Amino acid sequence: MAQPGGKAAGLAAVLRAGGLTGVLAADELTRSPEWLPLDGAPGAAVRLVRLNEENYREASFLDQRLLERGYAQGACDLAVLEAAVARLAVRAHYIFHTGHVGSTLVSRLIGAYPGFFSLREPALLRALAMRGPAEAAPRLEAALALLSRTWRPGERAVVKATSFVSELSTSILAAGEQAVAILMFVSPAAYLAGILAGPNSRAEIRQLDAVRLQRLEGRLGPEGLLAAPRSEGESVAMSWLCEMTALCHAAERFAARVRWVNFDEFLAEPRSGLADILAALGARPAAKEIETLVSGPLMRRYSKAPEYAYDAALRREVLRSAELEHAGEIRRGIEWLQKRAGRHPLARRAFEMSAAERL
Predict the structure, then answer these.
(1) The domain 88-353 is classified under which CATH number: 1.10.287, 3.10.50, 1.10.10, 3.40.50?
(2) How far apart are CA 118 and CA 112, in angstroms?
(3) DSSP 94
(4) Is 39 in a helix, a strand, or coil?
């Protein structure tokens, strides 16, 4: 129920201006993940979107793109959100990754297994990551508590973060004692080929280039960084190293609670790969259950846009084509990484983790 006075009037104005459908109470936020907070709306209100289980299963991105789908929207005062958070626990698992390494596919496979509820790329974590760890700290636990809600008792939420949220991976794992993280990556050569193969991924790298360079320099220092990238291949390699060093930092602190997954190795042996991932999350799947998942449609569709066919064979073909077309930039990117790995131990650990090159 809306409270009388100025706050209620302010929320009503937000509802009218934003086309929202109702003012929410704390009870409605604690019962289930039905109401997902997206952002703060004008008037110190929080905007939420109403989703059911099928909506969550379909969504590749739990962000403002949901507003285009016609789902019901609501709002609540920040104090109502805080009251709900106080009654919730942080108990999610996570998928962190370098980007473009099959994390959406793995998230969908996990979500198809009983007992897990998968959420992909929530705007809440993305907004906090853009603020940086220090500024995000006061709000992080509240966001994680909201993302830990499930539909039924005994379920465990598994949150697949956006790639640059890896900057918060150490803080996120510190917030939940039982949290397990799946850390996904590919070799530098495969990452370079995969990014250079598509115009959209290349544009994304350019968009995040400056921020990732700043983040990487914060970890390696000017002496470890040596110099900024000077070519597209070097920029792609820098992006890989930025996210991989973030994952390595989290893995060093929480070694017992992380499971590294090389996506290309996963595709080569998906049955054992999925069994290992589910086991790391606390499940004990039968061989028949694994077979049902890896032989089903999820492995044959492009996970971010399931209307398109995509499988391991097509990925190999795309990578081979990119390796031929962009051989020079891939070589420059690998050389850029080798120089940083030779100067800084964290960069060396990230580089050697890939098993592509051994120094």
Answers:
(1) 3.40.50
(2) 8
(3) E
(4) strand
> pLDDT for 319-338, tens place per residue?
999 999 999 999 999 999 99
User: Hey, where are the domains in the chain?
Assistant: 1-87, 88-353
| Structure-block tokens of residue 90 | 């942080």
Q: Buried b / exposed e across 166-175, counting CB within 10 Å, b at 16+?
A: bbbbbbbbeb
Closest by alpha carbon to 180, among 257, 256, 81? Answer: 257
Q: What is the largest CA-CA distance in the chain?
A: 67
The CB density around residue 23, as the number of other CB atoms within 10 Å, is: 21
Reported confidence tier of residue 358, pLDDT bands at 50, 70, 90: very low
Q: Which two tokens stand for residue 118?
A: 């998968």
In angstroms, the Cα distances linking 305 to 60, 112, 286, 302, 309 are: 8, 17, 29, 5, 9
Instruction: Please tell me whether the overall predicted TM-score, pTM, comes out greater than 0.85 for this model.
Output: yes
- When pLDDT is cut at 50, 70 and 90, the band that residue 177 belongs to is confident
Q: What distance in Å separates the CA atoms of residue 287 and residue 272, rounded to the nearest whole number?
A: 9
Which has the closest alpha carbon to 77: 120, 47, 36?
A: 47
